[in-house]
Write a structure and sequence with these properties.
The protein has helices at residues 114-125, 133-141, 151-157, and strands at residues 13-16, 19-25, 35-41, 45-46, 50-53, 57-64, 67-71, 74-78, 83-86, 92-96, 102-109, 144-147. The chain is an alpha+beta fold. It has a single domain (13-157), classed as Jelly Rolls, CATH 2.60.120.10. The chain is globular.
Length: 167
């Protein structure tokens, strides 16, 4: 990997409802070893439905705000400086139940999943609903499983806004 500098506030980005994805390093830049994305997360926002990855581990480092992370049966209240491992094969999600924005830096290893965010954002922008076969095929392409059955439970428990463009 050559020397790369991505200044604060820069990087290609997409928006998925209240969740942003700012690309800091892609797998193409790291030889496929990992990807690094920043997730700005608006107040009262569910980052994603419960989901699991079959191919990747994720590591989330809270930069700003407070984020609630569910990993399996664990509930973690993460403040700035907290690192959470979300191993492959375990259902997880994250949310911002607070009244101020949060930011999470996420390492995805190995790389590859970062392409999902861009592709699902294109579908969401085109108005393709989560239950549409194209979204399901995209999840299959990236070997991701979703458990959408608990969205309302989580939204109600944490007093969140209903996601306008769930992943």
């Amino acid at each position: 990997m050559s020397d790369i500098v991505i200044p604060a506030g820069e990087g290609k980005s997409v928006q998925l409802g209240g969740l942003g994805v700012v690309y800091k390093l892609s797998g193409a830049q790291t030889g496929g070893l990992f990807a690094l994305v920043e997730h700005p997360l608006g107040p009262g926002t569910l980052g994603a439905p419960l989901h699991l990855h079959h191919n990747e581990d994720e590591y989330s480092y809270v930069l700003e705000g407070e984020v609630t992370v569910l990993v399996g049966e664990r509930v973690i209240q993460a403040t700035p400086g907290t690192l959470i491992a979300k191993p492959r094969g375990i259902f997880h999600t994250f949310l911002n139940a607070g009244s101020v924005p949060a930011r999470v830096l996420e390492i995805i290893a190995p790389a590859g999943l970062e392409g999902y965010f861009e592709e699902v954002a294109q579908l969401a922008t085109a108005g393709v609903p989560p239950e549409d076969p194209r979204r399901m095929m995209l999840a299959e392409k990236y070997n991701v499983e979703f458990d959408r059955s608990r969205i309302m439970e989580i939204v109600q428990k944490y007093n969140l806004k209903l996601p306008s463009a769930p992943r």
